[in-house]
Design brief:
The chain is mainly beta. The chain is about 5% helix and about 25% strand.
Length: about 375
């Protein structure tokens, strides 16, 4: 212990004798408390802003574009918000309207609105639409909403709600075309003279692939819609029946009246494609695999079921046939903007009427199998 004290004393003495004092003054001369420090800065005084914590009611936690303040009733689930459609049967208030599993909407009862006719009832997802006809007469006679088509109890009963929408290349209502769909209605002709076809051949081919060359297109009727898919939708579907008086003469002859469901994809540079076709990829017309030859579906009273003089068979051959009920389904991206065009036209002539019945448009929360299939 004595040795330790001696060594420390020697070391301390050596430090005192061998290190020169640099002369630093470590003392602090504190000014009075009321004297400001001079830091040499002459600019405006800087004030530290008050920090205010964000209101969690305004925060969009799930990143779906809606906060609780904007009506999001489940801000931990991006598929649930006011931009969603209510998916029936899942026990969730998907659209945050305060009702779990809203009953299926019915907007086609007692209306002549063409969009409501095929049950596109939630107008939040319809950005705009137009009714397109190649003639003013076709605009009046070539589209309608009906609670049935033809005889009561035939095979064309309503699929959803009270009614459906009909697009036709001739007058929808039978009385306007003198009971004969093969003579039909050339909308360019004289309404009092059905034998005066005047189709000028100047209409563009609606075929999204560009058409098959120099063909006569007449009496085009369309419904053009700009849609925005709900944020929880991955697909959609609609039901339809196609009828044509081109049966049986023009089967396997080409240049047939055609129904297209044309999707315009804004995510793919406005690319157009027909999404309604049979299992061989054929368009919806009399050569389609779903078109009934011979007729099976009861289309009594529509005018496409009548017997008449035609170019094949006996003088009392049937002058028309149809598909059964079909369903087209297609996938889209949640929240995607796209156009959907229902289009039907006469091809090769302005007579030999054709029609399409449209019903039961629905959004799907899950991806669908794309294509068109018969409804059993």
């Amino acid at each position: 212990m004595r040795m330790t004290v001696l060594v420390l004393s020697v070391a301390f003495a050596a430090c005192e004798s061998g290190v020169e004092d640099p002369g630093f003054d470590f003392s602090i001369d504190n000014p009075p408390a009321d004297t400001p420090l001079d830091d040499g800065y002459d600019g405006p005084a800087y004030e530290v802003p008050d920090y205010e914590a964000p209101d969690v009611y305004e925060v969009d936690r799930d990143g779906d574009g809606y906060s609780p303040a904007a009506g999001d009733c489940d801000d931990d689930t991006p598929q649930v918000n006011p931009g969603a459609f209510d998916h029936p049967g899942n026990g969730i208030d998907d659209d945050c309207d305060g009702t779990v599993d809203n009953p299926p909407a019915s907007c086609d009862c007692g209306t002549d609105d063409l969009i409501s006719g095929f049950d596109l009832c939630d107008r939040r997802f319809l950005l705009g639409w137009d009714r397109v006809s190649s003639t003013s007469r076709g605009q009046l006679e070539g589209a309608a909403v009906r609670t049935g088509y033809g005889n009561a109890g035939n095979g064309l009963g309503v699929r959803q709600g009270c009614a459906y929408t009909i697009l036709a290349t001739g007058a929808v209502d039978l009385a306007l075309c003198d009971d004969n769909r093969q003579i039909g209605t050339d909308f360019y002709g004289n309404a009092l003279d059905p034998f005066s076809p005047l189709c000028p051949g100047t209409e563009p081919d609606p075929d999204p692939l560009g058409g098959g060359g120099d063909v006569l297109i007449c009496d085009t009727q369309q419904i053009v819609m700009r849609l925005r898919a709900p944020v929880n939708a991955n697909g959609f579907s609609f039901d339809f029946v196609y009828l044509s008086a081109e049966y049986p003469e023009w089967v396997n002859e080409g240049f047939n009246d055609t129904f297209y469901a044309i999707l315009v994809d804004h995510l793919a540079g406005e690319a157009k494609q027909n999404i309604s076709f049979d299992n061989f990829g054929h368009e919806i017309e009399v050569d389609n695999a779903y078109f009934e030859n011979p007729p099976v579906t009861d289309i009594g009273g529509t005018g496409y079921d009548l017997t008449c003089t035609n170019e094949v068979g006996p003088l009392t051959s049937v002058c028309g046939s149809s598909t059964g009920w079909l369903r087209t389904s297609w996938n889209i991206q949640p929240g995607q903007d796209f156009d959907l065009i229902f289009s039907i036209h006469d091809e090769g002539d302005g007579i030999y009427d054709s029609a399409v019945i449209l019903d039961n448009f629905q959004w799907s929360a899950v991806p669908v199998e794309p294509g068109t299939v018969p409804i059993i």
